[in-house]
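The aim of this short unit is practical: by the end, you should be able to scan a pair of folded records and say something sensible about each. We start with the first protein, listed as its amino acid sequence and then its C-alpha cells.
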Amino acid sequence: MEGDIKRVPLGNRRGMSLVELIVGFTILLVLTAMAVPMARGNVRRMKERELSRSLREIREAIDKYKDMADAGKLGPADGVDTFNYPKTLEALVEGVKGAGQGADTKIKFLRRIPLDPMTRTREWGIRSMQDDPKSQGWGGQNVFDVYTKSTERAADGTPYSEW
C-alpha cells in the first residue's frame, strides 16, 4: 500500500535525547561561569593600566611645567604661583606664554586632559602643594598632584585614589 507510513526503529532517529541536552547545557554553563570572572579581571586590569598611564601623563606635564617655571622660561603674567606649579589643569592644556625670546609663543604641556578610566570623565581630583598628601579636597592654591575620584579599590586593597 502506498499510503502506509513506514516506522523507523528508535536507534535510527536523528536528534538529541533530553539527557544529552542537559549534559550539553551543563557543560556550557560551567564554561561560561569560568569565563565571566576572567573577562571581568581582564577589563579591570586594562582600566588599571589606563589609569596608571593617564596619571603618569598628567604628572609628567605638571613636572615639566614646574621645571620650566623654576628655570624662568614661563612668563610671570600667566598665573604661575610662588611654588611654580600651575593654577589649574586647564593651564596645562591651554598653554602659557614663554619668557625671553619665546615670549610670543604659548607652551602647551598637554593636548587634552586624559580621560579617567575609572569614572569615564575628564574630572580628576586635585591636590595642591599645601594640601595633605591623602586629602580628598583641594585648597585651590595650585596643582601639585592628581588622583582619580573613583571609590573603588584595586585587587591588593589599595584605593585607586591613592595611586
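Turning to the second protein, read its sequence before its C-alpha cells, just as you did above.
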Amino acid sequence: MEFGIATFVTDQGIAPTALAPALEERAFDSLFIAEHTHIPVERRTPYPGGGELPDIYYRTLDPFVTLAAAAAVTERLLLGTGIALVAQRDPIITAKEVASLDLVSGGRAVFGVGIGWNREEMENHGADPTTRGRLVDERLRAIKALWTQDQAEFHGEFVDFDPVFCWPKPVQRPHPPIYVGGGEGAFGRVAEFGDAWLANSLSPQALSPQIERLREVAGRAVPVTVYAASHRAEAIEQYAALDVDRLLFYLPTHPEKESLERLDKLAEAAARFR
C-alpha cells in the first residue's frame, strides 16, 4: 500500500515548491490537490462538511500551475488533482493542461476528477447542476479523444468539435490515469473511465461494502485510493486488509513550519506499514 498527501494549496499556506520535495524526502508517493476557481459570496448550496465554509475553498491556487511547480522540484512524486471540477472546465484546454503536466513531469500526472458540489460555482461557469453528471462524462470522453487521436473530433450533447490537432500528447499511454471521485452515484463513471476510485474520507467499515458494490457495477476489481484517510495504526491495518492501493493523509493548510511538523507525524504513521 502506498501513502500520499491530499491538501488545499493556497496563497496562505506552504508553497508547492517547499511542499513537494518535503513529501519525496519523507517517502510519500503522491500529492493530490483540490480545485475551486472561486466561491460565490451568496450561496444556497450547504457546505458538505457542515458549518461555515473554510476560506481555503476560495484561496486555492490553480491546480495545474501548482502541480507544474511541484514537478520542477521533484523526480518521483505523482502529481494529482483531487479533484479537478470537470463540469467547470473546457475540455480542450483541460486536455492540453493535463498532457502538458504529464510531459513536463516525465509522465507523473494523475487526473483526479469529479462533478463537484457547489451549484452556484458551477452556474457561474455556465454549467447546469441538474445535468452535470452527463456533462462530465461527455467531457471526459472528449478529453480522451484529444489525448489519443492525432486528428480528434467529438460530437455530443454538450461538446462538439470537428477534427482538430491538439498537442502535446501525454507521455503515459494511452493517457494519464483517471481517478474518479464520488460515492455510489459515481460508480458508473468509475466503471467507464476509472483507472481507480478516489473514495472520499470513508472509514474501513464504510468502505468495505462500497468496494463490493463497485465491483458489481464495474465487473472488475477497481484500484482504490482513499482521500483524507485516517492515519491511526488500527485504521491503516484495516485499509490494508481491504487491499486498498493508496491512502491519502489530509494535510491542513498552514505555513511551512507547521506543515513540515505535521508531515513528520504523518510520515511516522506511514513508515510503520512500509
